[in-house]
Amino acid sequence: MTLSTVPHTEHSGLIVSPRAPQALFELAPDLLKSMLASHGYLVLRGFEHSIDRFSRLVRQCSGRISLDPARTFDGNTAQKVDAGLDAVGLHCENGNSPFWPDLCWFYCQTAPARGSQTTLCDGKAVYRHLTAEQRAAFTEREIMYARRVEADKWKTYAFHALAQGTDAPASIEAVTLQDLISLTPQDAGSLIELNEDGSITYRFRTPAIRNSRLAQEAQPAFANSLFGPSNHYQAPRITFADGEPIDPQLLHALDGLCEQLTVDVGWQRGDVVLIDNTRVMHGRRAIDDPARTIFNALSYLD
Fold first, then answer.
1. Whole-number mean pLDDT of the chain?
2. Which residues make Cβ contacts (< 8 Å) with residue 273, sequence separation at least 6?
3. Contacts for 126-132 with beta carbons within 8 Å, 24 or more apart?
4. What domain range is 226 assigned to?
5. Which of 14, 32, 125, 295 could form a disulfide with 107 if both were Cys (CB 3.0 to 4.6 A apart)?
């Protein structure tokens, strides 16, 4: 099958469309990953689509699927985006936790008639516009997220993640702290503690400026969750890794810079957006059209 490609913006993103009828899952995973590594995110537009076709595409491009236990499930891959109607700040999905997926997917089943756009901001472009002082502030020190998560949420997450393997727990109730820790990358810079009520408190140390996991060579990107939401969860405490607060004026300046480089997806019915979740941040304008229906999926390359 031959494809048509045009830039989504002048500095990042690519719109990919078929020249003849083609189902989403007929796209070659290696080709998608190659384009994603170059452009940061892809808008797959004009393909034969459905929630099942979307889920099949996600599974064949991923080594492991990650699910958010606070969202509505649709099968074992896609989840409905149901985080209220307010605007959502820029973030890498789950980038404020040790369980940071490589890929973030969106499928537009019903496009909004007005507003209600998902937003995208390429951290690579943001990095190029940082001042020397701003770069130094986040290259000399890592940042730290600290948060409490209720027992039912972390156990549900671990249960579904481990269900894809051979040592899956028999039930959500049987999930242990060690099961959760087993899902944490060895280099995640995290500490997870079990509380008396069964909840956990985690501390996650990570760079605010990082290299994409998909890129073949170092490409620094300001990609993090400093401005992200806390829907369904306790808001994390965010500091530098040594515990020092981050200067509010610095955050304000960075928020303004990111907003200048933020673009709307421009949803059309059937669109799929694939994001390098280690390079490109996303958010959302306020929902003006509640009939908008978007599904989300999260996954790892390996």
1. 92
2. 41, 42, 43, 44, 105, 106, 108, 118, 120, 265
3. 126/221, 126/222, 126/254, 126/257, 126/258, 126/261, 127/209, 127/220, 127/221, 127/222, 129/257, 129/260, 129/261, 130/222, 130/254, 130/257
4. 1-302
5. 295
pLDDT digits 0-9 by tens, 7-56: 999 889 999 999 999 999 999 999 999 999 999 999 999 999 999 999 99
The pTM of the whole model exceeds 0.90: yes
Q: Which long-range contacts (CB under 8 A, 24 or more apart) does 237-242 make?
A: 237/145, 237/146, 237/147, 238/96, 238/143, 238/144, 238/145, 238/146, 239/143, 239/144, 239/146, 240/141, 240/142, 240/143, 240/144, 241/141, 241/142, 241/143, 241/144, 241/205, 242/141
- Asked if 272 and 44 count as a contact pair (C-beta separation under 8 A), the reply is yes
Are the CB atoms for 229 and 82 separated by under 8 Å? no
CATH number at residue 154: 3.60.130.10
Please report the DSSP string for 247-297 in residue order: PHHHHHHHHHHHHHT-EE----TT-EEEEETTTEEEEE---S-TT-EEEEE
Taking only the tens place, the pLDDT of each residue in 151-208 is 999 999 899 888 866 678 889 999 999 999 998 876 668 999 999 999 999 999 999 9
Distance CA 156, CA 150 (A): 10
Residue 61's pLDDT band (boundaries 50, 70, 90)?
very high
Cβ–Cβ < 8 Å for 98, 181: no
Interval 258-276: pLDDT, tens: 999 999 999 999 999 999 9
What total number of domains does the chain contain? 1
Q: What is the largest CA-CA distance in the chain?
A: 58
Q: Give the pair of three-digit tokens for residue 139.
A: 């290259």
